[in-house]
Structures are given as C-alpha cells and as structure tokens.
Amino acid sequence: MTAEPKGPISFRAALVIYLVLGVLFGIALTMSEALSWYRIQEMFRFQAFHMYGIIGSAIATAAAGLVVLRRFGIRSLEGDAIKVPPKVLGAGTRYWAGGTVFGLGWGLVGACPGPLVALIGFGHTIILVPFLAAIAGTWTYGKLRPHLPH
Amino acid sequence: MHLLTEPWPWYVSGPIIGLFVPALLIVGNRMFGVSSSLRHICAATAPRGVDFFRYEWRRIGAWNIMFLVGIFIGGVVAAQFFAGAGQVALSDAARETIAGFGVTEVTGLIPAQLLSWQTLTTWRGAVMLVGGGLLVGFGASWAGGCTSGHAISGLADRQLPSLIATLGFFAGGLTSAWIIVPMLLGR
After folding, report:
1. Which position among A35, A122, A132, B153 has the lowest Cβ density within 10 Å, counted as fewest Cβ atoms?
2. Taking 70 as the threshold, does the pLDDT of residue A4 lie above it?
3. Are residues B58 and B97 in the same domain?
4. What's the confidence (pLDDT) of residue A83?
5. Chain B: residue whose CA lies nearest to A131
6. HEC assignment per residue over chain B
7. At A75, is the secondary structure helix, strand, or coil?
8. Using CB atoms, which residue from B25, B68, B78 is nearest to A30?
9. Same structural domain for residues B76 and B111?
10. What DSSP state is assigned to residue A56?
C-alpha cells in the first residue's frame, strides 16, 4: 500500500472508483448483450453485425481516448504519468497459441472473463462453474508455464 | 431510446465500453483488462509455490479485483433495475442455426437447454461449462490478456502482439462455433 498519495487521490480512494467503474462496465456488458452465449455464436457464424459493431466502435473510442490523453499529457489521479506499456512480442508464440486456446473456450462457453462474472451477478448461478474452471485454467497455466513456449 | 427499458444498440454500448480504456488510465494509469484478475485470485488464494503467482498481488492487483467485484454488482444491478436486460434481439439466421442444435427456447442471455445445473452432469454440458471455462482461463493467461486487454485495449494502442492474440481468439472461436459445438450437439 502506498503511504503518501502522489496525486489528488489515494490508493484506497482509487479502489472505490475502480469498483464503481466495474459496476458501470457490468451494466454495459449486460445491456449490450455481449455476455450472451447466443450473441457469441451469432458473431462467430457471421450472422449479425452486432458484436462486430460493439468491438469495432469500442476500439475506435478507446483509440481516440488514447490520442487525447497523449496529446494533453494528462497525469492520472493517483499521480503517475499516463503511459501504456508496450507488450513484448518475443517469439509471439504465446499470442497465437494462447489466443487460439482462449478462442476455443470463448466459442464453447460463450463468454469471456468479464461477461462470466456479469452473468453470475445477473442470476445465472451455473456460470459459477465456468468461472471457477477459468480460475483453475489460470492456475494450471501458472503451473505449466516453465514448460510452455512463449 | 430508453437506456433502462431496452437493450442498447451497438453504437451506444460499443463506445461506452471503449471509454473504460481512457477512464482507467485517468484514474490510476491502469490498462483496461479483466483476465489479470484471474491470476490475482490464484495469487491471493493458492500460490502453492508457483512462481507465476508469487508477487505483491495487493499492490498490483487490488484494482483488478475491485473492478471484477464491480462487474458482478453491475450484473445484479442490471437484473434488478434495468427492465430491458436479459432479452437478446438475435438474428433470424442465428435462431435457425441454434434451433438446429436442438435449442428451441431462445430466451434469456444463455440457453438453459445447454448451460444449466441440469446439463452440467451431461457430457455436453460438462464440455461447454467446465471445458470452456478451463480453456478461457488457460488461454487468456498464456496469451497475456483476453478480449478486453488484447482485442480492445491492445488494438486501440495498435500493438502487434494484441493483433496476433485477437486473430488467435477468432481462429479458436470459429473452430468452436463451426466444428466443435455442432459435433458436440450432434448435428
């Protein structure tokens, strides 16, 4: 825990903001239908523009936001300079192989990590099973990590 | 348009989702991404001597965990207060495909005929729920991100690794949707 806040808000105050942002994100996931198994199947079968519209406009909005943040050199409320760390490419294996494994699961259960949690909140208690399985999958990755190509 | 009583069209929900990238950067220089929280949960509960889970999860990951708890609450709030939540305006083409899988009731957000406590004990249900979940967690950790971290944050920042990961997401998703799901559901 950081003792002295560097910016206008402390570490703890920021945590409350992250919680509130999470609530808004959960609502957005639900109201966009992006957490629906039906919508994911429809997307992968190219049967509607809906999901492509969501992801495409989300990327465009996020990109515009990054341009604005960089142009004005805005500092974060916690006091750090805003910078997006570049991901390390390396051999690139982890991205295509891990990405493909993730996609296989996404197409089966019809939800990625955020949507899984929103679905549980929405009342679909059965989704606790894939959520716990995803944690188990993460743990398994951690255990096997030294033996996997990256 | 009524945000409380109708599902949001993509051109409303997409930009709202995209705004979480600058919002999280402004609050604390945090990069929008959900799957890191899975790693932090492992680090907090069962590190068991695995190097990947030995780090200061409170300092690095407390924000992810708070965001994740928020997403859960967001689902609760949507279910309680948003009358438009829980209906999916699915295309006719998709309805037809899904009917071909024996899913006759396209209601709610997920098909109860495939994903429910009743189907968990069938091999189809177990593959989709347990297998799907395992692959999502394993794959997201291996790739270093999921839909939010790579497909939205990473692509918005024009990062090549995220493009490769997103192409992987689609390669895997297409394989599941066109080959594995139809085989699994016996059509």
Report:
1. A132
2. no
3. no
4. 86
5. B133
6. CCCCCCCCCHHHHHHHHHCHHHHHHHHHCCCCCCCHHHHHHHHHHCCCCCHHHCCCHHHHHHHHHHHHHHHHHHHHHHHHHCCCCCCCCCCHHHHHHHHHCCCCCCCCCCCCCCCCCCHHHCHHHHHHHHHHHHHHHHHHHHHCCCHHHHHHHHHHCCCHHHHHHHHHHHHHHHHHHHHHHHHHCCC
7. strand
8. B78
9. no
10. H
Residue A96 and residue A7 in contact, taking contact as beta carbons nearer than 8 Å: no
Walking along chain B (187 residues) 10 residues at a time, the average pLDDT comes out as: 82 97 95 96 94 94 97 97 88 94 90 95 96 98 96 96 97 98 87
Residues in CB range of A147: below 8 A, 6 or more apart: none
Residue whose tokens read 């928020």: B70
Q: Does B123 touch chain A (CB under 8 A)?
A: no
Could you tell me if B158 lies within 8 Å of chain A, comparing CB atoms? yes
| Cα B177 → chain centroid | 16
Residue of A nearest to B94 (CA): A42
Question: Looking at B44, B68, B87, which one is the last position of a domain?
Answer: B87
Looking at the structure, do residues B114 and B69 belong to the same domain, yes or no? no
The distance between the two most distant Cα atoms of chain B, rounded to a whole number of Å, is 53
- Domain count for chain B, please give it: 2
Distance separating alpha carbons of residues A90 and A96, to the nearest angstrom: 12
C-alpha closest to that of B33 among B138, B164, B147, B115: B147
Per-residue pLDDT band for A1 (boundaries 50, 70, 90) equals: very low
* Residue B187 exposed, middle or buried by CB count within 10 Å (0-12, 13-18, 19+): exposed
Give the C-alpha separation, A43 to A99, whole Å: 17
Query: ipTM exceeding 0.90?
Result: yes
pLDDT attached to residue B162: 97
Domain that holds residue B119: 90-187
Q: Are residues B185 and B96 located together in one domain of the fold?
A: yes
CB-CB neighbours of B6 under 10 Å = 15
